[in-house]
Amino acid sequence: MARVGRWIRRVLDRPGSVDLAPYQRVVAEAAALEDEVRGRDDLRPATVDPAWVGTADFCAVVREAARRALGQRPFDVQLTGVLAMLDGHVVQMATGEGKTLVGAMTAAGYALRGSRVHAVSVNDYLARRDAEWMGPLYDLLGLTAGWVAEGSAAGERREAYAKDVTYAAVSELGFDVLRDRVCVDPADLVTPPPRVALVDEADSVLVDEARVPLVLAGAADPGTAQPEMAALVRRLSRGYHYTIDEEGRNVFLTPKGTDTVEKALGIDLYEHPGVVTQVNLALHAQALLTRDVDYIVRDGRVHLVNASRGRVAMLQRWPDGLQAAVEAKERLPASETGEILDSLTIQSLIRRYPRICGMTGTALAVADQLREFYDLKVAVIPPNRPCVRVDEPDRIYPTAEAKEQALLDEIETRHATGRPVLVGTLDVAESERLDEALRGRGLRPVVLNAKNDAEEAAIIARAGERGALTVSTQMAGRGTDIRLGGGDPEQEAEVAALGGLYVIGTGRHESSRLDDQLRGRAGRQGDPGGSVFLVSGEDHLLTAYAPDDALPPADPDGVVRDGRAGILVAHAQRVAEGVNLEIHRNTWRYTRVLEKQRAEILERRDRVLHGDAGAEALRIACPDRYRELEETAGEETVSRAARQIVLFHIDRCWTEHLGFLSDLREGIHLRALGRLNPLDEFNREAVPAYRAMLDEIERRSKETFEKADLSRDLAEQGLRRPTATWTYLVQDNPFGSEWDRVLKRVAGMLKRGRR
Ligand code: ADP
């Protein structure tokens, strides 16, 4: 019987999900050891045996350590999650199941096996909070933990990375790797070799943000604003001068629009491709990027909003041209730009680690991507107490107006019962509109969005109180723990009796995971709760991804109940998810070559930085000069100078190579017109360009070495490095591969021009 049950379960499980039975057996054995372990004085293992980690004894020991250090006895399901992560899987565990503790016990396990762990958080706040919160647990096991934040100095970073477990935001980790990438003295290096990455909010980091490049740029220059272009496109109107494609990722000038632009500028666009790019960037900024949806303006600056988290994306900007175009649109001065010295996508950053594991509330829906891009499997951990949240089917309305009415009525009715209500909106602008409409009805909602993120903790702390009415963007969708009654036990029972937290989504997201994250705010740890989404036929999701399908007609009360409507909504969401996956795949195809080249050049660079490879190369390339310098300046000085010279040219040539590849990538789609496969074309040029770069490094190194005066500072002899560097993330998300589209547009225009 039992065997059949397991067989059926395996068939029904989504492919790629891990069988938990072996872990559950170990956890069951651990229960028998609990009393004995409780009697031990010292929980530190006497000898370090990597095979011990993952055993029942290990489980009993970390459980006891957590109990002593934090006053929390880990549940069986938490230990199951630990074992799955120690096997290198991504675990799916719902909100409130205690993933922070699971992550810490896992990190401790890896550290006890002798591997340094980087616990990758989504922001500085969480990195520090988790490191400090879990510190006593590591202490008891004889381990050390540290954290890195944006403000940490180089020395503090080095110290934090020297710990057994280091908590850091993914961006800080990446910036440290990039800065190390241009280090000329081994003593200045900050990051140790990558061993284990333990990724929190794994779907968000590994899938949604995988393509985001982290950038290291040299000394900042003021950017160039294009206020005339912004003013010009501001006068154009949609439908007449330009059209937008259904997915809202592309904007096209109509022939009429082209005429208007040409008249206004007094030029023939066909003869000025550079101007075409400027016009397109301005048009993108004007027509496709919406204030209070894609970005907010605060303190005279444009701040990008992270679509999946609904909060300001710190340190993020769009590619330079688009960034300046948005600033011009908002009549702000252009922010600074600089030469890109090196860049690294989050996916490449994480793939450097030989061992990756992670945790999130929503992993199963991206199981295929996790396998395709990282070779990871998903382990679905059951909740500690069964989830009793009632998820109602979507309520579907023909028009946005009908939905809005129903939404306001629903909020008012639910709120009147005293039950806490959390309304999740799709963007900042919507949260503000809704706030106003609710106030019009005499209600007093509390709004949480990217504009008031400083008050986040206080707002969330009260969102589960009796009568609370919270309107929030996706900010309240991830990692926020809403307690019924706001932590007051008496009120908790009262709120539970009312039905617990009720979540209302004002529309389905482009990703089902975001819907699930929002729903997951209710019903944590077996709490009662409920959720519902309201959808209209005019929602962006449907108009963009199912434009040709009409909703079935509504019942007399205005609600569409025909079963086909729900199928249509699910279909539109799957199309949206498919589009995003295709964009991810496409970017990865292009970055793969670059990553291989980077890995290879870094290996060469390391041999120069840590060894004598630079001196050896120059001794062979310029034997006479080498001997001559050795006699005049001494062996030590020549060897040091050789290292400095070769490192300089490696870095300089790599920067130039990156610039070449990015131009190549931008222009490659023009060749698709000649029916060449753009990716093949890209690879065909990238590979010889890399070889040419290696030759160039050698040529320039020799040239410098022949001429250099070793008694003077080499920096003054053409080896000057940028005096300052700065780091940021590039957000190219709104249109996928932005440049493909801009260039497709240029190509389309040129074709039209010829006709
Ligand atoms: P998640 O990230 O999975 O939503 P958290 O790590 O934020 O959950 O934990 C949610 C809450 O549950 C925290 O207040 C934490 O202290 C508590 N918690 C976690 N594990 C246990 C446990 N074994 N016993 C009691 N409380 C726990």
TrEMBL record:
Compartments in which it is found: Cell membrane; Cytoplasm; Membrane
Residues annotated to bind ATP: 78, 96-100, 481
Domain of life: Bacteria
Pfam family, one: SecA_SW
Domain spans labelled SecA family profile: 1-566
Membrane topology: Peripheral membrane protein
InterPro entries in the cross-refs: Helicase_ATP-bd, P-loop_NTPase, SecA, SecA_Actinobact-type, SecA_DEAD, SecA_motor_DEAD, SecA_preprotein_X-link_dom, SecA_SF2_C
Record key words, sorted: ATP-binding, Cell membrane, Cytoplasm, Membrane, Nucleotide-binding, Protein transport, Translocase, Translocation, Transport
EC number(s) given by UniProt: 7.4.2.8
Main location: membrane
Function: Part of the Sec protein translocase complex. Interacts with the SecYEG preprotein conducting channel. Has a central role in coupling the hydrolysis of ATP to the transfer of proteins into and across the cell membrane, serving as an ATP-driven molecular motor driving the stepwise translocation of polypeptide chains across the membrane.
Family: Belongs to the SecA family.
Complexes and interactors: Monomer and homodimer. Part of the essential Sec protein translocation apparatus which comprises SecA, SecYEG and auxiliary proteins SecDF. Other proteins may also be involved.
Protein's name in the database: Protein translocase subunit SecA
Native species: Microbispora corallina
Gene it is expressed from: secA_1
